[in-house]
Amino acid sequence: MTEPDIVFVIDDDLSVRRSLIYLLQSADYNAEPFESAEKFLERQHFPGTGCIILDVRMSGMSGFDLQEELSRADYHLPIIFITGHGDIPMGVDAIKKGAVDFLTKPFDDDQLLGVVRRAIELDRRTRAKYDALQAIRLRLATLTPREYEIFRFVITGLLNKQIAAELNIAEQTVKIHRGRVMEKLGAYSVPDLVRMAEKAGISPPDLKTA
To answer: Phi then psi for 6, rounded to 5 degrees?
Structure first.
């Protein structure tokens, strides 16, 4: 079962947490409050889509510290920073590091809800790309070393006989391995293989012949 979207609210001001939770729930969002970054880190890793509304200045770990900690942990929920003490350089720095937006208190409710919608949609798109990439990597992992080698040559656009010449093997051997590569990767054409290679960051080999 797919996890519902959740907006995590992390702010050490109880009144702010309550008002944000009320606003989000009134807009039909699932929301979870946390009084500190440390408390959020104690929560089990959330695998679904959502976002984080995060105060910059808190007792203990700051919002920026949490942003860096989550990045190191490969935990990439979109972050919306809120602060009563922000400035332009601070906001620019936060966005450069991946934050979706940087809002200064007091902010308009509709403005915040609009940013939340944008953040969750961004998370959906990002996760779809990540899931597609993971699926490709899992398929690639099923290739034998020789099949992987053939795969890298196929994406250059070479014919079987040209690949055979490059590897100094029989053309029939290339044909057999090429068929297995297509089957294992679920590809129907060379362009399919090229797209998979690009998504997985796989480059073609250097060729010995022109």
So the answer is: -135, 135
208 neighbors 166 (Cβ within 8 angstroms)? yes
User: Residues near 27 by Cβ (< 8 Å), separated by ≥ 6?
Assistant: 113, 116
Mean pLDDT of 151-178: 94
How far is the C-alpha of 47 from the C-alpha of 66, rounded, in Å? Answer: 18
Q: Where are the domains of the chain?
A: 6-133, 142-200
CATH 3.20.20.80 fits 6-133, yes or no: no
pTM given for the model: 0.74
Render pLDDT for 46-85 as a digit per residue (tens, 0 to 9): 988 999 999 988 888 999 999 999 988 888 899 999 988 7
What does the radius of gyration of the chain's CA atoms come to, in whole angstroms?
A: 24
Query: pLDDT tens across 128-151, in order?
Result: 988 899 999 999 999 999 999 999
Q: Helical H runs in 73-108?
A: 88-96
Q: Which CATH architecture has domain 142-200?
A: Orthogonal Bundle (1.10)
Contact (CB, 8 A) for 72 and 98: no
Instruction: Give the DSSP letter of residue 78.
Output: -
Q: Which of 3, 7, 55 is nearest to 31 (CA)?
A: 7
- φ, ψ of residue 102 in degrees (nearest 5): -140, 105
- Residue 116 and residue 50: Cα distance in Å, rounded? 9
Tell me what percent of the residues of the chain surpass a pLDDT of 70. Answer: 96
Q: What element of type H or E holds 207?
A: none
